[in-house]
Amino acid sequence: MDKMVVDDYGWDSIEEPHSCSYITPRILSLLKKLGVRRVLDLGSGNGVLCSQLAGQGYDVVGVEVDKKGISIARSAYPEVAFHNFGVEDDPHDLLKDETPFEVIISTEVIEHLYSPHRLPIYAQGVLLDQGYLIITTPYHGYLKNLVISLLNKWDFHFTALRHGGHIKFFSRRTITRLLTDHGFKVIGFSGVGRIPYLWKSMVIVAQKI
C-alpha cells in the first residue's frame, strides 16, 4: 500500500457522523431513483450507513481502510460484509470475494485523500458497465468561500490540526473535472445542508462510460 495513506481516522464508536443527518436522506432518495440494488460503500467508516442501507433492502458491502473502523463495523453489523481495503489497493482484490456493483457511494471521503484520483480509478475497477458513482464532499464556491473569509473561519474549516482531516477542497468544477478525467460522466449535482450556495456538502452523481 502507498505510504501516503492515513490508516487511522479516529473511529471509536458506532455513533453516526453528524453529516449523516443531511446526507443519508439524499443518498436513499438517489438510490431509489436509480433503481439499483447492489451497493458498495467506499470508505464505510464504522459501518452505520451500510447498516441503514441493508435495513432498506439493499445488497450492500463496505470497504474501509481504517482497521478500527472495520473492527467496529464487523462487530456491530455482522449482517453486512466489510473489507479492509483502500482506494490505493488493487480493486481486483475485492472482486475475489465480491461480484461487481451497480452503484458505489462514497460519502465525505475524497477530501481526505492525498491522491483523490485513485477513488474514481478504484470505482472503475469494481463497477458494472454503465454503473453509477455517488460522491459527497464539502461544497466550495465563491459565495461560501467569501462568507468563510468574512467570518474568519478558515482555521476551523480546514481542520488543519485533526489527524486524518481534510486535505483537498473541491468546487463543482474541480470535482467534475476529476471524474470526467477518469472515465465518468457527471449526470447529477445537488447541495445538502444549509441554504443554496452555502451548502455544507455537494452530491455528485456520475456514470461509468
What attributes does this structure have?
Rossmann fold, 33% helix, globular, 209 residues, 25% strand, alpha/beta, 8 helices, eight-stranded mixed β-sheet
Instruction: State the helical fraction.
Output: 25-40%
Give the helix tally. Answer: 8
Q: Examine the secondary-structure arrangement and name the CATH architecture.
A: 3-Layer(aba) Sandwich
Summarize the helix and strand pattern as letters. Answer: HEHEHEHEHEHHEHEE
Mean of all residue-level pLDDT scores: 94
Distance between the termini: 27 Å
So what's the oligomer here? single chain
Secondary-structure class: alpha/beta
The CATH topology is Rossmann fold
Instruction: Give the biggest sheet.
Output: 8 strands, mixed
At the first level of CATH, the class is Alpha Beta
Proportion of strand residues: 25-35%
Count the E strands. Answer: 8
Shape: globular
Radius of gyration: 16 Å
Count the domains.
1
Query: CATH H level: which superfamily?
Result: Vaccinia Virus protein VP39
Weakly predicted, low-confidence segments: none
Give a structural overview:
This protein has a single domain, classed as Rossmann fold, CATH 3.40.50.150. The chain contains eight helices and eight strands, in the order αβαβαβαβαβααβαββ. By secondary structure, the protein is of the alpha/beta class. The two termini are 27 Å apart.
Compact description:
This protein is of the alpha/beta class. The protein has eight helices and eight strands.
List the helices and strands and how they pair.
Layout: H1 20-34, E1 38-42, H2 48-55, E2 59-63, H3 67-76, E3 81-83, H4 91-94, E4 101-107, H5 118-126, E5 127-140, H6 142-150, H7 154-158, E6 170-171, H8 172-180, E7 184-192, E8 201-208
Parallel strand pairs: 1-2, 1-4, 2-3, 4-5, 5-6
Antiparallel strand pairs: 5-8, 7-8
